[in-house]
Amino acid sequence: MKKMLATILALAMAISVTACASGGGSSSASQQSGNSDKPYEGTKIVYAGESGSAFGEFYKSVTPEFTEETGINVEFFEVAHANTHDRFLTEALAGTGSIDVYQLDQPWIPEFASMGYLEEVTDEIKTQIDIDDFSESGLSTMSYNGTLYGIPFQYHTPVIFYRTDLFEAAGLDSPPETWDEYREYAKILTDEEKGIYGTCLEAAAVLEPVTHFLDKILQAGGNYWNAETGEVTFDSPEVKNALQWMYDLQHVDKSSPEGALGYENGDVYNLFLEGQVAMVSEWPYFYAGAQDPEQSNVVGKVGIAAPPKGTDATSALWAFGYGVSSASKNKDAAWMYCVWATSKDVLTRFSIDQATPNPRASAMAAIQDSSEVGDDIKNVLGVIDESCLRAQNVTNTPYFPAVQERLSLTLSNVMSGITGIDEEVAATAKDLKGILSGS
To answer: For 30-66, how does the pLDDT look when each residue is reduced to its tens digit (9 = 90+)?
Structure first.
């Protein structure tokens, strides 16, 4: 990704970063400096994030600018991806204030907020960040029970990546827009003799495939529950239609390889880059990988399009943001960092560097208006951004991790033929009632 965008990034790094005013909360840091321009000079805040994260690496590279402008030192406390949730939860439970700023993964927010571990985004902070510049869908990912607990800096949803050369050879002029077209195109593009499949699903009994399963449920017009009433809505014709559509792609049309029953994201990524799959509905990073000649056999042969429409043109939305620990002893300084890190200028640079959209309209507009960004990158970011604007938050319960665990079994059981759709949907709905009631 970084090689592909090196030239663009070099130009983007020339954009100046504007310093922001301080945030809300209490802090003794203002007593540490007599410099009225930098009242928090000498203050140290701790940023907790995922080690090795591309997002974290970007912020590590630009944060010295924040320190230069404010005098606030930022220490990066990084934890391996698999351990981030449990480690950050342990720190929060301890209540020592050892963490000031959280790099928030969206599914954690209801859990952390319901336990009182996150500060609310106050009206003062909303004014400082120009809250109306952020998309409604993006803000929903950082909210719980109508209260905002974080500021989003990135969001994404699966989109279609397709082989333009294979589409042309098959006489397909444009990417599919509906489920029916997607299924028909997948059949047309499948050529088992050449080892090419029209698409590839994920159905391993792990968490990742559930994210795509949720897309299909939403596109079918369903959901696993009604967040406003608390009613479990999983046992519905819409959910059954979503499972049937996936089952038919795999077992009736056979346009997805047999191994898909044990696949998750990394497996599909490798097959697509090897040139064995003509079309997938997957994460935005697939595009950057597909353009890297060191790992891809399909460089210059990949197009991008919005997710296919079932009953609805939507999908599940996933995001990262910044929030402040309720135990922080330097809340003002911590909020200053959150405001700066989600400013228009920083997010413009972030999206160019990472080839991923952000929820700030002015930042996305700046990219589209820039003469220094190629049309291919503008198109990729534009398609993903438009898809995110139509996407929905599905993690609005503290019990989502348990919901996701149960749905992983649902998907695996149906796709592998262990249980039928009606039986599995009914059993899942019963389990979800217990999970979502906290029993």
So the answer is: 344 456 688 899 999 999 999 999 999 999 999 999 9
391: helix, coil or strand?
Answer: coil
Distance, in Å, from the CA atom of 206 to the CA atom of 152, rounded to the nearest integer, reads 26
Helix, strand, coil tally for the chain in percent (to 5): 50, 15, 35
CB 63 within 8 A of CB 10: no
CATH code of the domain made up of 2-155+319-384:
3.40.190.10
Are 322 and 342 in contact, with CB atoms under 8 Å apart? yes
pLDDT score recorded for residue 82? 85
Rounded CA-CA distance 171/162 in Å is 14
- Tens digit of pLDDT for each residue in 206-247? 999 999 999 999 999 999 999 999 999 999 999 999 999 999
In this predicted model, which residue has the larger pLDDT, 75 or 353? 75
Tell me the per-residue pLDDT of 244-291, one tens digit each, with 9 for 90 and over.
999 999 999 999 999 999 999 999 999 999 999 999 999 998 998 999
The residue among 285, 268, 286 whose CA lies nearest residue 277 is 268
Alpha helices (H) along 76-162? 84-94, 109-114, 123-129, 136-140
317 — phi, psi (to 5°)? -105, 140
DSSP label at residue 76: E
List, as own/partner pairs, every contact residues 25-28 make where C-beta atoms lie below 8 angstroms and the sequence separation is at least 24, other chains included: 25/119, 25/324, 25/328, 25/331, 25/332, 25/334, 25/335, 26/331, 26/332, 27/329, 27/330, 27/331, 27/332, 27/333, 28/329
What pLDDT, in 10s, does the model give residues 62-97?
A: 999 999 999 999 999 999 988 999 999 999 999 999
- Are domains 2-155+319-384 and 159-316+399-436 of this chain identical in fold? yes
User: Both tokens of residue 376?
Assistant: 């291919």
pLDDT digits (tens, 9 = 90+) for 16-25: 333 333 333 4
Closest listed residue to residue 282, CA positions, set 265, 260, 302: 265
Residue found by looking up tokens 């990988």 in the block: 289
Alpha helices in 220-291 (DSSP H): 237-247, 265-274, 285-290
CATH T-level assignment (fold) for domain 159-316+399-436: D-Maltodextrin-Binding Protein; domain 2 (3.40.190)
User: In 10 A of CB 169, how many CB atoms?
Assistant: 12
Domain ranges of the chain: 2-155+319-384, 159-316+399-436
Q: Give the CA distances from residue 65 to residues 69, 78, 110, in Å, rounded to whole numbers and listed in that order.
A: 6, 20, 32
